[in-house]
Amino acid sequence: MNDLQIDYFMAVATNLSFTKTSEELFVSQPAISKQISLMEKELGVKLFIRNNKKTTLTKAGELYYEFFREYKKELRDTMYKAAALQQQDPEVIHVGFMEGWDLAEILPEVLRRFHDKYPNTRLAIDCCGVKELTTLLLTDNIQVALTMKNSLTDFNELYQNTVATTQKLLIYSPANEHAGAPDVNPSDFRHEKFFAPWEIVGKMITRVLATYCEPYGFTPEIEFVHNSESVITCVRNNMGVAIVDDWVWCIHSPTLRYIELEAVDEICVTRMKEGVNEQTLFLTELLEDVVKSRHS
After folding, report:
1. Do residues 8 and 1 lie in contact, with contact meaning Cβ atoms separated by under 8 Å?
2. Does residue 175 register a pLDDT over 90?
């Protein structure tokens, strides 16, 4: 039994006429009769009594008429309630960014254009370190991320598209002994502690920081702290220095100084290659477009 058979049955039961029902639905009378016969066969009862003068419901037909009338009413009510719930609790797409990045030139346009396309889908923003961003992507806790490309080299299951570059900067406190030097150079900080977030502790960050400092003739002494905010706090209070991207908002603070390094890194948009929905694909392309237009 299917919805078409139920609709034909309800229409005939209301009109008490196969002819009138045929005219109303623009369906041939034999087609309606066939579907009613199939329904009667499946239910195991006769639903109508038909003679040359009139069509009437059997007792069983009256029972099914009341049942299907209530069923249709309950279905409509449930559909309205479900639609209302969907409006109250929209679908959420999570997008991740590196913690500390200044997103003022990117995020407002991304939010506006995404909402214009999908007004019933909400974008949730997650800012964290590179390792956590990768973990969240692989576990489907975020669907799209803007992150450092060098953190994704070991993950073939991730789609990656380079959209911008970032200049590496060495940041230090205005209270540092080298802050007043006329030609301050990265090599001046060879004896300083270089702070880095512990969440990326390991051979990768040690190797990368050493690469940044190699042109200046030294290997940095690294001290790992809890997160990027801890790194900034330590540097601002003249406990050491750090290497950051020129995307971070803190470089504009009067409590910090910086000098450019020779190193440049790539920033990419990334998501899972497989199993992504329409909204995620659109968000990926949107983020790529906005970042390229702002940082090309």
Report:
1. no
2. yes
